[in-house]
User: What shape does this take?
Amino acid sequence: MNDSQARRIYLDHNATTPVHPEVFEAMLPYYKDKFGNASSIHSFGREAKVALEESREKVAKFINASPQEVYFTCGGTESDNLAVKGTAFANRKKGKHIITSKIEHHAVLESGKFLEKDEFEVTYLPVDKYGFVDPDDLKKAIRKDTILVSIMHVNNEVGTIQPLEELCKITKEKGAYFHTDAVQSVGKLPVDVQKLNVDVLSMSGHKIYGPKGVGAIYIRKGTRITPWSHGGSHERSRRAGTENVPGIVGLAKTVEIAQRDMEQQSQQMKNLTEAFYQKVTHAIPDVILNGHLEKRIPNTLNLSFKAVEGESIILSLDLKGVAVASGSACTSGTLEPSHVLSAMGISPEIAQGAIRFSFGRENTMEDVEYIVGILPEIVSRLRAMSPLYVNK
Assistant: This one.
């Protein structure tokens, strides 16, 4: 039996997570006996409708919103598209200027590029070496004709937590809407839409031990957004299409579990990532932390190994049964350096050697010890083949 057969360690939880057993059990009845369409008026439909609205209440409560402000989607990407494009088109008479950052998820960046083709102007704010947006840059960029600011809560690659409350305050003072992609924060950090004062928020189920193919968007009452899909009056005419009731029930169960376990899970992730970082940097020279050591989500570490291709490390670890990533799952397979790391001013050589280790609830200190036990040899072997590395 080889190493990959003997052990399987998953450290790519920012890409996706396994469905929690309690979530799976909660969903099963809605695939089998309770299979009705929530739009049907007979007993099967009413049963599904009750589950739909109860789930909406649970998700709303989790983020401190009203149930009438929560709409279900197929995931974070759809929510981001609706947030950015929908807000832009609904408010184009007021202005055609949008502000976002250079490190956003591609669902936001590509939505911005789409709008630029329709005469909207998009300003892409820079970030510092840790991945933070400077509030002063937002103050300088925002204008009378700015209708939307979209800044993510937590970056999916380096884990940086943005100063949303301050950014929101600046935005509101100018009368613009504020959207945040909270896909990597909801369920991992306390997220209160009233405290943050955001107008629109995107979230997803599969990042927090829920099913794939379901997400939600919070739209503050009074926020003008044009629907981006058409075909029916589902979700109070905000999002056409038969609701994914099993997935929505699963999402609701997911946030219940997150509420219950968040404090314990946060401490566990902090312990694991801190131990991992200390052990790796002690065992391997020339390791660079990308992002902030403290102001980041507890489960995420992004490390660059000087003079080594990140892809080579990923493949070598995979042969040993360990799954990690080099950046966003949505851009895997591309040869370009991470747009996030590039925006942070990290050189292409260092960015190409970046690995994202994103821990999850099933990971243990034994996993840390195992990886630290095999990683130095992998890096040493790859550096021996690299013309770029000079051993000090």
